Amino acid sequence: MSGIGPVESVDSPETNGSYEVIGGDPPHLTDRWHTLSPRTRRAVLGAGAVVALGVGAVLLPPVHSSRQSDPRPPTPWPANVTEWRYVGLAQTTDTPTTTGFFRFAVAVDSGPAVTLRVTGAAFDGLTAQAVPEPSFTVHTGATRRVTVEISVSDCSGLPLNADLAFLDVTLRNTRAIQRHSFIFGASYSKDLSQLLHRACSTTNARPGLRPSGSAGSQNVDLG
To answer: What is the pTM for the complete model shown?
Structure first.
């Protein structure tokens, strides 16, 4: 025979009695939080905010300024931004002479100003310099007209017909000092050959040979 007896409260056992609890909930932190005083709660919240700020400062990546993330480009090499163009003879003459004056246009495309000095004119036996000032400066975006005086000092090793003649130039800006050879084409070679013929036609000048620059060359003027 089965039946249901009276329900006894498990929380109220008999005196000195015992019972078994099957399952049950562990104590919650919220239960203890509600037992704290308001002053203690404020102190705990303040300490948590400080800890959170410290952890964020360590984990977050550093913030770089726009100047650091976008650095300025390096200063260019002076020979890479300087252009020479042959303009023509500064003066013409049919009389025998050992000196000629040649006009050039010099420009600097970018970067700081470039200071230049003409040091040679393709062949041994020739001397060259800019006049009236051997050294001159060209600023970025500007074009400067320059006169180069070329003189024949020794005809014994010179060809009468110059082919792809060039100028040897020293260039300097805030990055470097470079030696460079600027090659020019038909117009300059023709005018230089006329000077060589006037100065050396009665001497034992050798046949024309192709010159070779002392450094890199660029800006060939085919006009």
So the answer is: 0.61
